[in-house]
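Bug #77: duplicate submission created two jobs. Keeping one. Sequence:
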Amino acid sequence: QGNLVESGGGLVQAGGSLRLSCAASGRTFSSYVIGWFRQAPGKEREFVAAAAWSPGSTYYADSVKGRFTINRDNAKNTVYLQMNSLKPEDTAVHHCAAARTDYSSIFIPEGLNGYDYWGQGTKVTVSS
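Kept job's structure:
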């Protein structure tokens, strides 16, 4: 079993920055794909960004490309989402998730069903 815990959410003005953290425990996630998803009130959960085990193997939703950066520190079993130039439409509960993979693959799933472990989420509110 594994556990993911997000932190770093909060209230920020439009144009500001936040860094979210996803701390993994209970098992080794170093080969897993780690992704970030978000769910705004009244909307479905959507993909934001993800990183495979191989450095540089990342994928972003078009809506955050160029503004968000995902980084993983496998030594600390932690993944970060640096969010810059935040917009009011980024307001949502942000969840991290892990997809069970091994070192033979760097495929990054975009759908919710591709992920096996989920955190409870951290709320991000961007004021205009």
